[in-house]
């Protein structure tokens, strides 16, 4: 590099911008990281909660409410969640989340007279078959979430609702 | 790319003179520490402003987590300080900056006082500066209550008792500040509103006036 490549003014400009930028970054970095913290926080684990005894279950989806402990920042509380639970033909227990995969309304079982034996969401007429698969041509684009479940001592335990691949 | 965007805007709005006016404004030799090191005393005003900017920024970020409510205030402060990344630093900036801004402002006031820089024609700017001083003290007083811990509560009780000793209007001032008969839920929300809306708005207006007057009158001559 020859001497003429950079003028005194240019050099001072670069130096000032660099030092100023470094100082501004040092000031702003903690605050920006502070604000972005919720994005970078790991999701919380959820313990399995006893919901019902398995004798209550049948082939027909039935709604069960259960309480989970929820930690919301500095606020801890018991929150009620619901699940549609039934026994499949092969004996598996299926527990579906009632939250519509379109925009998060609550779905109900068998409440649309023109489409019996389906989950129905009244908000935008979204429908799901009994196993939670979304009916093509209705609003939702994915099947209902399935709860982590476990059977222990004749009782059904549910954990977190997990999303499935679209139909 | 940046140059092109700038040129596009400048062609339409002619913004160059706006910042050129500030950028080309010469610093007189007697206030430039590069010429006379003792001129560093002229930096205190600028430092006060710089710390004020940090206070405003860190305060804005703190309100992302803070709640001005007697049940949750302390918990939310504890959470943002101990659970959120860099919470200690952001709260620390606001906490220490609050003291530092008073120190810098005091030094700035001393400089202006001992140099007699407040004399005619700059009396009005002195008056505005004193108002800024009061607003800063108000910000310190109202901000002190917000963490809602024991120190905050009792310091505010004492502060409001002091306001109570004003002749004639004392009791009214007390009820007005406390937002009721006790120092409680309504005091906290009131102090929060004053701390983040009313006083900062007043501060920005006064600082604008302060700076405009410096520009209009120029800085006072050498001693």
UniProtKB/TrEMBL annotation, chain A:
It catalyses: 2 oxidized [plastocyanin] + a plastoquinol + 2 H(+)(in) = 2 reduced [plastocyanin] + a plastoquinone + 4 H(+)(out). Keywords: 2Fe-2S, Disulfide bond, Electron transport, Iron, Iron-sulfur, Membrane, Metal-binding, Oxidoreductase, Translocase, Transmembrane, Transmembrane helix, Transport. Residues 85-158 form the Rieske domain. The keyword Transport applies. Component of the menaquinol:cytochrome c reductase complex. The Rieske protein is a high potential 2Fe-2S protein. The main subunits of the menaquinol:cytochrome c complex are a Rieske-type iron-sulfur protein (QcrA), a cytochrome b (QcrB) and a cytochrome c (QcrC). This is Menaquinol:cytochrome c reductase iron-sulfur subunit. It comes from Fictibacillus arsenicus. The lineage of its organism: Bacteria, Bacillati, Bacillota, Bacilli, Bacillales.
TrEMBL record, chain B:
Residues 5-223 form the Cytochrome b/b6 N-terminal region profile domain. It is found in: Cell membrane. GO terms for biological process: respiratory electron transport chain. InterPro entries: Cyt_b/b6_N, Cytb/b6-like_sf, Cytochrome_b_N_euk/bac, Di-haem_cyt_TM. Its cofactor is heme b; heme c. GO terms for molecular function: electron transfer activity; metal ion binding; oxidoreductase activity. It is a multi-pass membrane protein. The chain crosses the membrane at residues 39-67, 96-114, 126-146, 158-179, 191-214. GO terms for cellular component: plasma membrane. Keywords: Cell membrane, Electron transport, Heme, Iron, Membrane, Metal-binding, Transmembrane, Transmembrane helix, Transport. Gene3D superfamilies: Cytochrome Bc1 Complex, Chain C (1.20.810.10). Pfam families: Cytochrome_B. Component of the menaquinol:cytochrome c reductase complex. The main subunits of the menaquinol:cytochrome c complex are a Rieske-type iron-sulfur protein (QcrA), a cytochrome b (QcrB) and a cytochrome c (QcrC). This is Menaquinol:cytochrome c reductase cytochrome b subunit.
């Amino acid at each position: 590099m020859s001497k003429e490549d950079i003028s005194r003014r240019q050099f001072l400009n670069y130096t000032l911008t660099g030092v100023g930028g470094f100082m501004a970054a040092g000031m702003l970095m903690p605050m920006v990281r502070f604000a972005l913290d919720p994005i970078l926080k790991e999701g919380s684990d959820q313990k399995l909660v006893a919901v019902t005894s398995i004798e209550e279950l049948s082939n027909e989806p039935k709604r069960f409410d259960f309480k989970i402990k929820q930690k919301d920042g500095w606020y801890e509380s018991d929150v009620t969640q619901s699940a549609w639970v039934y026994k499949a033909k092969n004996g598996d227990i299926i527990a579906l989340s009632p939250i519509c995969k379109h925009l998060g309304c609550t779905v109900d079982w068998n409440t649309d007279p023109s489409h019996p034996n389906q989950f129905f969401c009244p908000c935008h007429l979204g429908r799901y078959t009994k196993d939670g698969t979304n009916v093509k041509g209705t609003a939702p684009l994915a099947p209902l979430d399935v709860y982590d479940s476990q059977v222990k001592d004749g009782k059904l335990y549910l954990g977190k609702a997990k999303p499935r691949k679209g139909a | 790319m940046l140059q092109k965007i700038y040129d596009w805007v400048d062609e339409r709005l002619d913004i160059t003179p706006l910042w050129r006016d500030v950028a080309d404004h010469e610093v007189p030799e007697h206030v430039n520490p590069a010429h006379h090191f003792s001129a560093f005393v002229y930096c205190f005003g600028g430092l006060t402003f710089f710390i004020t900017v940090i206070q405003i920024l860190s305060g804005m970020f703190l309100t992302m987590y803070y709640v001005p409510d007697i049940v949750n205030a302390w918990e939310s402060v504890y959470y943002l300080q101990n659970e959120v990344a860099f919470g200690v630093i952001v709260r620390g900036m606001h906490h220490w900056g609050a003291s530092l801004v008073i120190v810098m402002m005091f030094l700035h006031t001393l400089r202006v006082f001992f140099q007699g820089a407040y004399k005619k024609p700059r009396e009005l700017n002195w008056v505005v500066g004193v108002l800024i001083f009061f607003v800063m003290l108000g910000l310190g007083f109202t901000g002190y209550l917000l963490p809602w811990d024991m120190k905050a509560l009792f310091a505010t009780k004492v502060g409001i008792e002091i306001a109570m000793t004003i002749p004639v209007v004392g009791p009214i001032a007390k009820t007005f500040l406390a937002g009721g008969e006790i120092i409680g839920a309504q005091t906290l929300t009131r102090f929060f509103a004053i701390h983040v809306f009313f006083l900062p708005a007043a501060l920005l207006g006064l600082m604008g006036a302060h700076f405009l007057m410096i520009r209009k009158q120029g800085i006072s001559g050498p001693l």
